[in-house]
Write a structure and sequence with these properties.
Layout lengths: L2 E7 L6 H18 L7 E5 L17 H9 L3 E6 L11 H10 L7 E3 L8 E5 L7 E5 L8 E6 L1 E3 L3 E3 L1 H9 L2 H8 L5 E2 L9 H5 L5 E2 L5 E2 L9 H5 L5 E2 L3 H9 L4 H13 L5 E6 L21 E5 L2 H14 L8 H8 L7 E5 L3
Parallel strand pairs: 1-16, 2-3, 2-7, 3-4, 7-14
Antiparallel strand pairs: 1-15, 5-6, 8-9, 10-13, 11-12, 14-15
Helix pairs in contact: 1-2, 4-9, 9-11
The chain binds iron/sulfur cluster (2 copies).
């Protein structure tokens, strides 16, 4: 099936008012030309940018779209999930604080996987890598997401766009563990201070703290809350087995991303906008300033996450650069997430 991708070029270093107007125009264009029924409420799936990062898509870029959605009677929130590693995006409290510091104040901020990443919904997909995927629980309350992605490079995935925003971006902490390591956390007994904090967060009664502290694998559901909460870094996935498994399955990482993206999109009428601006070699999770290595291209919009990523990937190629990680697109198409074949419709002023 031929999907449509709408595109509007943006001149290099355009003022934010131009980005606001462009994003609003493209959103309205997809809604009207693709006859997308807007829901009464929609989650704006964004990335708030790690502290110290300066090239994430700024909050003001979304203001025009938010006004458009409000005019259409759609109630919105910014929705995100917490990450596996440290930094300000590690748990709900710090992540929300960062979002507000970065100006994401136009609508409420919701961290979809709870205080420590423990809240998720299991979505069955019966895939090659996952029977079911753990998606941040709050996403289940929405049948529509407006998925707003910064198209740029990524150390592990090669690049990140709509597919990565859906997969890693919507997965709960346990889902992220699944995609990266495929094992549940372990307690490193010699580091454990017997404070019992992890036990208070474990809904599966899987943790024993005593003369030997350990996690019962048969009870653990891999939510990651203990890993998130331990103040002494005594809970880890960086065990020899975890690292070996991650290395041995590295080639399948793009496929695991695509399967999670399929789960996150299941049953939803999503709209995707990719911002191919400030295109950096690494992602917005980097906590140090980066510089764009390509000129700004513009903003893309579609109802198809595969088509929109393919369109951005091709646009980068036309500039003489090629990201690694195209397998996430080809595998996503293979499992039915969308279609690489698309018609690029360029909007003019
Ligand atoms: S939170 Fe960490 S230090 Fe405290 S009991 Fe659990 S593993 Fe041990
Ligand atoms: S032991 Fe397992 S189920 Fe319990 S908090 Fe840790 S990851 Fe979650």
């Amino acid at each position: 099936m031929l999907s449509k991708v709408y595109f509007k070029p943006v001149a290099p270093h355009a003022p934010v008012e131009i980005i606001q107007r462009t994003a609003r125009e493209l959103l309205a264009c997809v809604v009207e030309r693709e006859a997308v029924k807007l829901s009464a409420k929609a989650a704006l799936k964004v990335h708030f940018g790690e502290k110290g990062n300066v090239t994430y898509i700024p909050a003001e870029s979304y203001t025009g779209m938010i006004h458009y959605l409000k005019e259409k009677g759609v109630e919105c929130c910014f929705m995100e999930t917490s990450v596996l590693y440290g930094g300000m995006r590690f748990n709900r409290e710090r992540h929300t604080q960062l979002a507000l510091e970065h100006g994401f104040t136009q609508v409420p901020v919701v961290i979809a996987d709870g205080a420590e990443g423990e809240e998720f919904t299991e979505i069955p997909i019966h895939g090659k890598h996952f029977e079911k995927c753990r998606i941040g629980k709050a996403f289940a309350e929405y049948d529509q997401m407006i998925v707003l992605s910064h198209f740029k490079g990524h150390r592990l995935a090669g690049f990140g766009g709509a597919i990565k925003q859906l997969s890693m971006g919507c997965a709960s902490k346990g889902g992220k563990l699944d995609m990266h390591f495929g094992i549940n956390p372990k307690i490193i007994d010699r580091k454990c201070k017997r404070c019992h904090l992890c036990q208070t967060r474990c809904h599966s009664n899987a943790i024993t703290i005593g003369s030997r502290s350990f996690i019962d694998d048969s009870k653990c559901v891999g939510c990651g809350a203990c890993y998130s909460v331990c103040p002494h870094k005594a809970v880890s996935v960086m065990t020899v087995r975890g690292i070996l498994k991650a290395l041995l399955t590295l080639r399948a990482f793009p496929e695991r991303l695509a399967e999670y993206a399929l789960a996150a999109q299941k049953g939803k009428r999503n709209i995707y906008l990719n911002f191919a601006l400030n295109i950096t070699k690494h992602c917005d999770c980097e906590s140090t300033p980066q510089k764009a290595f390509l000129p700004d291209i513009g903003v893309f919009a579609s109802t198809d996450p595969v088509a929109i990523d393919e369109a951005c990937y091709e646009a980068v190629k036309r500039l003489g650069k090629k990201f690694r990680g195209h397998a996430q697109i080809t595998y996503a198409e293979k499992i039915g997430l969308g279609s690489r074949e698309h018609e690029l419709v360029t909007l003019s002023d």
